[in-house]
């Protein structure tokens, strides 16, 4: 038993000596590193000054950019350019595919939070309500417009159209586009106070290169015959058959 006790004491002494040696080596290493760093600073003073100048330049650029972004016009232009740049980058599959993966993983992680999931459901429900209200509003607008019968007459073909399907045209406008007087008379065949053209006739008449008289133009012999006074109702003329 005494031998075992003496052996444990010797082990303790050896461990203390080993720890002292390690501590001494660590102190020496730290001193050496400090000496090397001091020597490097003494040997390369220009490198430190260069870093200082670079940091100051970065700070100046950041401050200048911050002041420019206070201008709403500059900020709007910058946002448009950034959006366009991102759109062009996203056309590259090598960039777009990893981005989609990151977005999916991020969304999956956020949806684990109950509050985030509730907010997302609420936003989706609000969008559906807005979409429904927008649809109803557009439907009401459409019904209001078609409530009035197609009472606008095309001066070229005599078709009855809705107001939205016609365009107002004048003789002066046709002359300015290089149309001859004979062509103008043929196009505005139907006599009315305000001349209108339907979409089909307008596409023929207002061509840039080759202006043509539409095939369905009244001037091509398709005009209605003279209507008796008893039948001269503005909108009933389309119900009269030319050939029986």
Overview of this protein structure:
There is one protein chain. The protein is mainly alpha-helical. Among the domains are: 113-146; 152-239, no CATH class. It is built from 8 helices and 4 strands, in the order αααααβββααβα. It has helices at 2-43, 45-68, 72-90, 93-110, 114-147, 171-176, 181-187, 199-205, and strands at residues 152-153, 160-161, 166-168, 196-198. The strands form 2 sheets. It has a two-stranded antiparallel ribbon. Strands 3-4 form a two-stranded antiparallel sheet. Strand 1 and strand 2 form a beta hairpin. It is elongated.
- Major sheet characteristics: 2 strands, antiparallel
For the largest beta sheet, what order do the strands appear in spatially? Answer: 1-2
**Gap from first CA to last CA:** 138 Å
Order of helices and strands: HHHHHEEEHHEH
C-alpha geometry: elongated
| Rg (C-alpha, Å) | 43 Å
**SS summary, helix count:** 8
Question: Unreliable stretches, pLDDT < 50, 5 or more residues?
Answer: 1-6
Helicity range: 55-70%
Which structural class fits the helix and strand makeup? mainly alpha
Number of strands: 4
Q: Which percent range describes the beta-strand content?
A: under 5%
């Amino acid at each position: 038993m005494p031998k075992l006790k003496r052996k444990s004491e010797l082990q303790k002494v050896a461990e203390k000596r080993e720890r002292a040696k390690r501590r001494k080596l660590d102190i020496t290493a730290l001193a050496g590193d400090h000496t090397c760093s001091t020597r490097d600073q003494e040997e390369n003073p220009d490198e430190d000054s260069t870093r200082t100048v670079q940091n100051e330049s970065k700070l100046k650029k950041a401050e200048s950019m911050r002041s420019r972004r206070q201008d709403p016009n500059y900020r709007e232009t910058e946002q448009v350019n950034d959006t366009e740049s991102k759109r062009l980058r996203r056309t590259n599959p090598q960039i777009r595919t990893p981005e989609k993966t990151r977005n999916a993983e991020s969304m999956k992680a956020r949806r684990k939070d109950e509050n985030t999931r509730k907010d997302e459901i609420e936003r989706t429900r609000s969008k559906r309500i807005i979409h429904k209200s927008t649809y109803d509003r557009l439907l009401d607008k459409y019904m209001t417009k078609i409530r009035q019968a197609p009472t606008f007459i095309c001066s070229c073909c005599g078709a009855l159209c809705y107001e939205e399907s016609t365009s107002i045209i004048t003789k002066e406008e046709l002359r300015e586009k290089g149309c001859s007087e004979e062509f103008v008379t043929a196009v505005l065949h139907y006599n009315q106070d305000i001349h209108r053209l339907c979409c089909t006739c307008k596409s023929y008449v207002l061509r840039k290169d080759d202006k043509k008289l539409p095939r369905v133009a009244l001037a091509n012999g398709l005009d209605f015959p003279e209507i008796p006074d008893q039948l001269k109702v503005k909108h009933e003329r389309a119900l009269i058959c030319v050939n029986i």
